[in-house]
Structure formats: structure tokens, C-alpha cells
């Protein structure tokens, strides 16, 4: 039996922020997650859900307000699920991101030196940073609209603009919607089941001013040529247009095999610190161009490379890490996903599918895994290759901490640098430096 039940009203002191941006308080040792409450605040909260090990609540009244509470800058912030921390001072949020990393490690790792966790690398101007939007489209009251989903729900919230998206992404989205109205190409209407465009994906390259558009449809149709012609006439920077299929209008994304190029090139080019990247619509590319440059530079500098070293880029994607480091090392092994294209310019790069293809001692392994953390193959790589250093780029402090619990049996934790890749959200990116313990070096030799 829990100490609270649904609809109970209780006073709570918020101790810290959770990984989804909620305030966390304790009531008779039960953790309660309170949406929109900030660390340091005292609130009267209404319990909305009770689970075995936690409860959820919403703020009924703020009794003591945090000095760091600010007015959100977006009119749909309360409804939209895109941002979670617009009501919190930006620099205070950078401190919270460091704290989120610390609390995640505390859960999994018994003893470590907390001073290894550095301050969060933030943005000078944290607006308009997203270089890509993938937004649902609906026909509402006779008009096409793009929008977002409400927090924790599939309710469509129409928007006209988004202050965290690149400004040209907003402008292109608005042009497409206007042309959809003009040419009677309609967003899906779940009530009438009419219309067929379920979402729009717009990606821009900020350095080279190119743009890519993907129409996601739930029915095989052809987007009229006159719509495409007018779109590229208004926006000559759009050099790549795809159509892709997804039968479930509530799900983001699409089946990569269903995509068809309907105009221009397969890729757009972005440049980070002098390195060009060709990106297809379904390929991973960091969403925040300014922070991506800092992220890769940081990974490189933490590795402290020299021309004698042999390194491994284990989750390479379009190979940003390899491009940043290949000129500073003797040889680089790159593990690619089957769909990723190979860059022929890196003459000391060896593309491999399996670890058994590595014929050298590896000095440094770069991991830049997905949110789910390292795969079994990565742990196998560590136990077989025993690299002297690991540079682990993570976008999820929970899976990072879980992985570190295992890695720290043989490696020493030297440094963690959180980085704000997604301002005004609770997401935390970080880079961790680990070094092989002396005792394990002996075993290898
Ligand atoms: C966070 S992204 C990083 C990609 C790249 N390092 C970058 O910075 O753009 C993770 C990448 O890991 C790839 N990936 C996921 N699971 C993988 C696996 N089992 N083997 C190889 N690559 C994988 C994904 O395709 C994706 O490109």
C-alpha cells in the first residue's frame, strides 16, 4: 500500500530535476515526479498516478517559487511536447544537466570521484538551433497545418512557428503548407480519414544553405509536379525532395526502404569545422550544428591523439568522428551500418563489419551510441581489444551510467563533459574519457 493515492493533495519540496524535466520530491520515501515543478520549489501537488515504486503529480499551487523560474517564450509551451524546460533559467538548466549526469551515475556506480563531472558546455544563443524538423501535418477546419504532439500524448497541437527550429526550416514549412492548400494536397484528417500527408521533414545545412524536404504519406500518391515546381522556385536552396511511406499516421519516421527521390539529389551537404558531410533524408546527423562542432572537437581533444595511434570509430554513421581525427592518427577502423556510404577521401581508413577484421592493437575506441547505449558487440570489443582509452559520446545519462557500471571494472573514469545539444529540453549529451587500468594493461601484454 502506497502512502498516497490518486487525487490526494499534498505539499512537497522539490529536491531535483528528473531526466524528463519534472521536479522530483519524496513523500515518506516514495519518489513523486511533478510536471512543471522546479528544484528548490515548494508546491501543493495533486497525485495523478501511483505505481509500485513512484507516483506522478501535477502542480496545484506553487507555495514557494524558485528564483530561477522564468516565463516561457513560446505561446504553446504548456501544450506542446517539444520543450520541457522553457520555464527555467537557461544557465540554471545547464547546472541541472550536470546534476542529471551525476544522479544517473549515483544510481549505478558505488564509488567514483564526482569532480570528474565538468560543467555543461552550453550555447551563447540557444534559440533556432534545430537544423531539422519532422512534424505531423493535419487538415483542420479546412486548412492544412503543421504542428507538434502534446506532452505524453498523440493529440495534435497546430503551430505556426517554432523558436528552437532554424528560421529557414519554419519558412519552408509555411511555404509547403500554403502550396498544399493551393493545390489541394491535403494533410491527413483522422476524423474523415481523408488526406494523405501525415508529416513533413525539413532539414537544412546551416553552413552551405541547402535544404531537403521529405513528404511522408500514408497512401501511394504522387505529389503534383506544379507543387514541387513552385516550391523550388520559391526556395532554390531546396535541392533534394523525397516522398516516403508510413501507414501509421501517429508514428514519426518512415520505412527507409519506402523512400523515393522525387526531385534533385539524394543528399544535402553540411560542413562542420571544414569537413563536408553528405546526408540522406533517413541518415543520422546531429540536429544542432553549432553544438555538433563543439561535441566532435571535444571528443578529439579528450583522446589526445598522435600519429602513432590506431583508433576505432564504432558507431560511425556518416563518419563525423573519423573525419575529425583521421589526419591525427596512423590508422582508423570504421564500423559502418550497411546503408551508410563510404568516404574514399580518408586514405588511412579501413571499413569493417566485424571486430575479427581488426588486425592491430587499438589505442582509442570512440563510441557514439544511440539512446539505448552500447551493444553486446561493443562490450565484446572492449574485452578483446582492450584499448588504452575510450571516448564515449552519449545522448542518454541513464544508459551511460548503466554501461559505465560494467566498463569501470577494467577502466578508470577520468572525465565527463556534459554538453547541451538540445537547449530547453531535458536531454543531456555528454562525452566521457576512460583509461584502461594499469592492472589490465599487464594482462593484455
Ligand atoms: C548517435 S548516432 C552517431 C553517429 C555518428 N557518430 C555521428 O556523430 O553522426 C549512432 C549511430 O550508430 C549507428 N548504429 C546503431 N546501432 C548500431 C550497430 N549495432 N552497429 C553499428 N552502428 C550502429 C546508427 O545508425 C547511428 O548512425
From TrEMBL:
Residues 3-61 form the TRAM domain. Gene3D superfamilies: 2.40.50.1070, Nucleic acid-binding proteins (2.40.50.140), Vaccinia Virus protein VP39 (3.40.50.150). S-adenosyl-L-methionine binds at residues 286, 315, 368. GO terms for molecular function: rRNA (uridine-C5-)-methyltransferase activity. The keyword Methyltransferase applies. Belongs to the class I-like SAM-binding methyltransferase superfamily. RNA M5U methyltransferase family. This is 23S rRNA (Uracil-5-)-methyltransferase RumA. The gene is rumA.
Amino acid at each position: 500500500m502506497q502512502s498516497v493515492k490518486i487525487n490526494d493533495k499534498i505539499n512537497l519540496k522539490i529536491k531535483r530535476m528528473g531526466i524528463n524535466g519534472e521536479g522530483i520530491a519524496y513523500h515518506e520515501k516514495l519518489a513523486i515526479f511533478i510536471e512543471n515543478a522546479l528544484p528548490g520549489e515548494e508546491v501543493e501537488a495533486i497525485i495523478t498516478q501511483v505505481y509500485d515504486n513512484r507516483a506522478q503529480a501535477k502542480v496545484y499551487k506553487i507555495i514557494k517559487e524558485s528564483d530561477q523560474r522564468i516565463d516561457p517564450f513560446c505561446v504553446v509551451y504548456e501544450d506542446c511536447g517539444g520543450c520541457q524546460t522553457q520555464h527555467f533559467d537557461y544557465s540554471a538548466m545547464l547546472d541541472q544537466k550536470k546534476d542529471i549526469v551525476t544522479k544517473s551515475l549515483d544510481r549505478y556506480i558505488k564509488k567514483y570521484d564526482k569532480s570528474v563531472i565538468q560543467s555543461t558546455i552550453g550555447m551563447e544563443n540557444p534559440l533556432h538551433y534545430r537544423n531539422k524538423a519532422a512534424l505531423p501535418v493535419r487538415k483542420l477546419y479546412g486548412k492544412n497545418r503543421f504542428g507538434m504532439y502534446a506532452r505524453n500524448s498523440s493529440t495534435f497541437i497546430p503551430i505556426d512557428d517554432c523558436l528552437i527550429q532554424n528560421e529557414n526550416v519554419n519558412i519552408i514549412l509555411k511555404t509547403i503548407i500554403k502550396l498544399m492548400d493551393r493545390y489541394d494536397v491535403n494533410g491527413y484528417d483522422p476524423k474523415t480519414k481523408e488526406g494523405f500527408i501525415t508529416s513533413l521533414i525539413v532539414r537544412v545545412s546551416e553552413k552551405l544553405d541547402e535544404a531537403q524536404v521529405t513528404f511522408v504519406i500514408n497512401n501511394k500518391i504522387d505529389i503534383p509536379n506544379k507543387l514541387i515546381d513552385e516550391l523550388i522556385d520559391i526556395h532554390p536552396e531546396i535541392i533534394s525532395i523525397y516522398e516516403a511511406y508510413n501507414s501509421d499516421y501517429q508514428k514519426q519516421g518512415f520505412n527507409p526502404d519506402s523512400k523515393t527521390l522525387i526531385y534533385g539529389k539524394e543528399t544535402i551537404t553540411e560542413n562542420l569545422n571544414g569537413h563536408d558531410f553528405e546526408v540522406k533524408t533517413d541518415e543520422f546527423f546531429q540536429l544542432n550544428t553549432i553544438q555538433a562542432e563543439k561535441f566532435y572537437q571535444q571528443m578529439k581533444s579528450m583522446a589526445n591523439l598522435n600519429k602513432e595511434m590506431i583508433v576505432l570509430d564504432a558507431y560511425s554513421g556518416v563518419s563525423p568522428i573519423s573525419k575529425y581525427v583521421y589526419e591525427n592518427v596512423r590508422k582508423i577502423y570504421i564500423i559502418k551500418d550497411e546503408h551508410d556510404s563510404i568516404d574514399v577521401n580518408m586514405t588511412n581508413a579501413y571499413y569493417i563489419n566485424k571486430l575479427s577484421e581488426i588486425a592491430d592493437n587499438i589505442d582509442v575506441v570512440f563510441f557514439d551510441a544511440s539512446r539505448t547505449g552500447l551493444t553486446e558487440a561493443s562490450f565484446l570489443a572492449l574485452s578483446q581489444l582492450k584499448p588504452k582509452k575510450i571516448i564515449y559520446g552519449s545522448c542518454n545519462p541513464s544508459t551511460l551510467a548503466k554501461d559505465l557500471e560494467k566498463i569501470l571494472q577494467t577502466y578508470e573514469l577520468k572525465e565527463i563533459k556534459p554538453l547541451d545539444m538540445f537547449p530547453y529540453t531535458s536531454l543531456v549529451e555528454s562525452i566521457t574519457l576512460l583509461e584502461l587500468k594499469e592492472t589490465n594493461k599487464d594482462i593484455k601484454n
